[in-house]
Amino acid sequence: MALLTATAVPAAGAPAPAPQSTGQSATVVQTDRGRVRGVSHGSYATFDGIPYAAPPTGPLRWRAPVPAAAWHGVRDATKPAERCVQMPTPGASAVVGSEDCLYLNVTVPTPTPAPKPAPTPKPAGKKRPVLVWMHGGAFLGGSGADYSSERLAVRGDTVVVTVNYRLGIFGYFGHAGLGSAPAFGLADQQAALRWVRENAERFGGDPRNVTLFGESAGALGICAHLTSPTAVGLFQRAVLQSGSCLTSFPPGALGPGTPAYEPFAAEADVQTAGAEAARQLGCSAGGADEVLACLRGQGTDRLATAPLMQSFNRPAYGNALLPVAPGQALASGRFHRVPVILGTNHDEMRMFVGLTLAAFPIRTEDDYRARLVDAFGADAPAVEAQYPAGDHPTPALAWAAALTDRSFTCTTLAAGRAIAAHAPELPLYGYEFGDPDAPVLTGLPANPGFPYGAAHGFEMPFLFSSLPTERPLSDAQRALSDRMVDYWTGFARTGNPNASGAPLWPRLHSSSPLPRSVQSLAPGPGAVHAVDAHSAHHCSFWDRMPRPVN
Q1: I want to staple 327 with a disulfide (CB 3.0 to 4.6 A). Which of 54, 215, 525, 550 is the partner?
Q2: Cβ-contact 120, 196 below 8 angstroms
């Protein structure tokens, strides 16, 4: 990365000089669109709010991203841009964010010695691996700026990029007038990866060594890119945290009467929902051009609060970016041959169940059986036989365990089998985050007798320092955090998490003695080791159950 004053900037495309300490708090780097000034924080520097595409506003609403305009002078990159438009948070009255939101943030290590040096130091003159983070949030919320990446950058000696992308009706709307347009949020992510390819070297990164990683909806997006023809060459490795090409929820998983959830939707279904949204917004008169002109004339707040806003969170397939459903593409071998890490948390669904217990309590075995019938119909007795309420501290925890295995753990392992079936030589690794006492993410309701354990999203504070939790990490948890950072960045560097020298992580579905084992990530002596998640989570049972293929 070039640490420069505003008067000493190399020409675009010129090799960046070796990093040097300037004694100044501001740093300037030349990007392909102009210079940006970030902030040095001692052992690392941040460059926030860099545009990777033009604002998708006005006539560019619901169009593929186009490159950002060049600028003169030095652009301020000392604070993040606004997050993409999303529904108001609970208790808030105003819509959050802006349509002008296609920005990213870059964190790079600087020459100042870190308190703990990187376990795999970068050889002199060699570019750093690049990690590109796609945030979660059900394709409805979140922001790249929520994730401070200095530990991955400094300890792992990597360049880390976090990305904003369009959400909700702005990112996943479809209409016959748009033709077979791709999901705009996914197109944004690929535009950000193209920006990384053009600019990584200017920040000291290697544009030919890019690892795409993300959690929840971010992981689902990465699944899409693994099977997308338009993502060829944009990344060389992938880490999918709590989301795979086969993730799905049965009916009632998010509350009694809620529909089944599959992350991806056929283009025709998205267009049908778009036609209904146009009708509700008073924009259904005239031809397709008139309808789209009317919709593009609607205010941001009106669209963000439209009744159907939250139904537009399923990327469409049947277009150039996603020709077929990602699950089907994976099953048929149509995916990019890159090293992959797939992982889940031991108690994923406790987060979702915990959010709804106040409204939909599960106090008795009868409550539990009613939920099983809602989700599994005639198969409910078979599921109860695998997860009897008496084997768990409470019926609510039995329900969460059944959903975790059915929706996350076993579908992720099935996705791994699909990859290994077509590319047995591919480096493929699995993990299970299993800290039963992980700090609870701030904002989750307290439910007496219902511990969250290693719930959905609870691994992220072990990688990112900025996520608010009810308490800080303990000493043992900080040691686990170090180990996870070493695994993630070692994988980014070489395609093998074992490059860090931490306890051996076996490959998944290989010819090794532990072909079905994933790495258990938990604090304490000997807690990081290989476990047979397939057996522990009843996956032989779930593999026999009917399951949709996305």
Answers
A1: 550
A2: no
d(CA 304, CA 27): 37
Helix segments in 106-173, DSSP class H: 150-154, 168-172
| Residue 270 main-chain phi, psi, to 5 deg | -65, -40
Candidate list 99, 348, 384, 459, residue with the active-site label: 348
SS3 for 80? Answer: coil
**Residue 334: C-alpha distances to residues 102, 184, 315, 423, 430 (Å):** 29, 22, 18, 11, 21
Mean local confidence (pLDDT), 117-140: 78
Largest CA distance in the chain: 73
Measured distance CA(217)–CA(219) in Å, rounded: 5
SS3 content of the chain, % helix, strand, coil (to 5): 35, 15, 50
What is the model's pLDDT at position 2? 33
**Alpha-carbon separation of residue 273 from 280, 322, 538 (angstroms):** 11, 19, 37
Q: What is the pLDDT of residues 263-303, one digit of tens each?
A: 999 999 999 999 999 999 999 888 999 999 999 999 999 99
Given this model, what pLDDT does residue 26 score?
64
CA distance 394 to 390: 8
Q: Running DSSP on this structure, what letter comes out for residue 515?
A: T
* Residue type present at position 81: A
456 noted as active-site residue: yes
135, 336, 346, 456: the active-site residue: 456
Cβ atoms of 379 and 387 closer than 8 Å: no
Q: 249, 210 in Cβ contact below 8 A? A: no
Tokens of 535: 């057996």
Active site residue 392: no
474 is annotated as an active-site residue: no
What gap in Å lies between CA 131 and CA 464, rounded to an integer? 13
pTM exceeds cut of 0.85: yes
Q: What does the DSSP assignment read for 352-379? A: HHHHHTTTS---SHHHHHHHHHHHHGGG
Given phi > 0 = left and psi -120 to 50 = alpha, else beta, which region is 237? Answer: beta
Catalytically annotated residue among 216, 311, 481, 510:
216
Ramachandran assignment for 257, one of left (phi > 0), alpha (psi -120 to 50 degrees), beta (any other): left
Q: Where are the beta strands (DSSP E) in 191-326?
A: 205-215, 237-241, 265-266, 316-317
Phi first, then psi, for residue 487 (nearest 5°) are -60, -50
Which residues does 123 contact at the CB level (< 8 Å), separation at least 6? none
- The radius of gyration of the chain's CA atoms, rounded to the nearest angstrom, is 23
Tokens for 102, please give them: 């296609």
What beta strand segments (E) does 157-241 contain?
159-163, 205-215, 237-241
Residue 326 pLDDT > 50, yes or no? yes
* Cβ atoms of 244 and 223 closer than 8 Å: yes
Q: Encoding tokens for residue 227?
A: 């099977």
C-alpha 319, offset from chain centre: 22
At residue 548 the predicted structure's pLDDT band, cuts being 50, 70 and 90, is: low
Q: How many CB atoms lie within 10 A of CB 145?
A: 21
